[in-house]
Amino acid sequence: MLNYHDGQDVRLGDLIQWGDSATGTVVVMITEQAAVVGYVADDWAYLQRGCMIHVPAAGLFHYNAEGLQHDANLGLIARADPV
Question: What is this structure's pTM?
């Protein structure tokens, strides 16, 4: 399971705060092979674990469980609307 620095679980579609002023979205959950519209989960399967986060101001980033738990500059702003 993936968790943010504060212990909350990471979910597909989460809106996140990245650094002081940038925001982004969790676009792929690799282990679950799930992705938001516009992304293909299988494209990232070679990474085996973690998630992909898209930050428009900076690009697409891979985070594994350890990276997420230690990055105090990345946190949950809001959950995606349930489908």
Answer: 0.92
